[in-house]
What we know:
Largest sheet: 5 strands, parallel
Helix content: 25-40%
Structural class: alpha/beta
Order of helices and strands: EHEHEHEHEH
Mean pLDDT: 94
Shape: globular
Radius of gyration: 16 Å
Amino acid sequence: xxxxxxVAAIVGSLRRDSYTRxxxxxxxxxxxxxxxxxxxxxxxxxxxxxxxxPEPPAAWIEFRNRVRRAQAVLxxxxxxxxxxxxxxxxxxxxxxxxxxxxxxxxxxxxxxxxSPGLMGAFGxxxxxxxxxxxxxxxTMQQPEAYISGSDKxxxxxxxxxxxxxxxxxxxxxxxxxxxxxxxxxxxx
Length: 188
């Protein structure tokens, strides 16, 4: 297990001080050295339009190339109107096209959701999972990660204020690494 795994993290919130982004940054800090988690920006992706495929926007090409290099993908989502934010769904669409050239196919995935509310963005989490079925991404089932109270998760330095949340997130990251190693396509 000496090789470092490259995980592309797709954060479904564009807000600068996003709770979801802070959660992913905290997860990356908890990750062992054998797991490198990098947030891949999606805010510059124009809305997917098949008419643009003959000459795809530079942002699409850069995004596709970066995720294609990754060995796994972490989807982190808030919940907007009981569903997935448009920017996250758009990133899935940009990466899944042109048909037959999806950057997602076969990549191990995990989903974590965060919300200030009590349900921890449960609805959005499951909508992401529904799309991942079609995208052919083996998705970690356990532990499920619905993080509630996201507006109160961190201190000013970005550290978890609740030790049990920190411990849960550490277990989540550890389980995800094991999932990636078990399900990633072989290099040969």
